[in-house]
Design goal:
Layout (H helix, E strand, L loop, with lengths): L10 E7 L4 H13 L5 E9 L2 H14 L4 E7 L8 H12 L6 E5 L6 H13 L4 E5 L13 E5 L1 H14 L11 H14 L4 E6 L16
Parallel strand pairs: 1-2, 1-4, 2-3, 4-5
Antiparallel strand pairs: 5-7, 6-7
Helix pairs in contact: 1-5, 2-5, 3-4
């Protein structure tokens, strides 16, 4: 297995979620890991949610990535395919203000229709960024094998689970909001990349800059 170490230097990250809590469930451990660097800036954009849920989203992300600011689109939960034009406009407007190095977004083939819309649009709006698509466990049982992993240790996993509960009290108690589910997926992804725990990501296109001189350059 080849491990690529993120080069140190300023890193701008934009996190996209169809719903409040998508980002933290899908890549909260990754954000906690990045928070250990002093050269990383994080912003978030959540497209749907009631006012209560939008308030949760705005308060939650900064717990995972200090200083992170979350924008919300206020679109209809569960209706993003019908609101495709509005979703595209929200993302394009965000792109005028954010030129990130890394975009974290839902999977483009996610079984949830809202996730799919955001995942598919992410790579068309931010063509010059690395787009990693996170996974969200759900009733639909749509998980597939990731091709990118971020290794996590036990302390980061514990912090992720605690911050999920603190950040989204409206969801605590739902049958799918379960620490065993969240931890179990993280452990499985860890087994797959020989780490204690991991978050898995999918990416359709990755450019590896290995420092090679372009042909024809002197």
């Amino acid at each position: 297995m080849l491990s690529l170490i993120a080069q140190h230097g300023p890193l701008s990250v934009l996190c996209l979620g169809a719903h409040p809590d998508d980002i933290e469930i899908g890549c909260g451990g990754t954000l906690l890991t990045l928070a250990g660097r002093d050269d990383v800036t994080v912003a978030g954009l959540v497209l749907t949610g009631t006012q209560e849920r939008q308030d949760e989203a705005r308060a939650s992300l900064a717990r995972f990535a200090p200083g992170a600011v979350v924008e919300t689109g206020g679109l209809r939960d569960g209706r993003l395919p019908a609101d495709w034009d509005a979703a595209k406009d929200v993302l394009e407007e965000a792109a005028r203000r954010h030129a990130p190095d890394l975009v974290l977004a839902p999977r483009a083939d996610d079984a949830h229709q809202d996730h799919r819309v955001v995942g598919r649009l992410a790579a068309t709006v931010w063509r010059d960024a690395l787009v990693l698509h996170y996974e969200i466990p759900k009733w639909d049982g749509d998980l597939t094998t990731p091709n990118h992993y971020v290794a996590l240790d036990a302390d980061v996993v514990a912090a992720k689970l605690r911050l999920l509960d603190e950040g989204f009290p409206s969801q605590v108690g739902r049958d799918w909001w379960d620490h065993e589910v969240f931890r179990g997926l993280l452990r499985l992804r860890g087994v797959e990349c020989r780490a204690p725990y991991a978050e898995g990501f999918h990416s359709r296109k990755v450019l590896l800059d290995l420092g090679a001189t372009r042909r024809g350059d002197d």
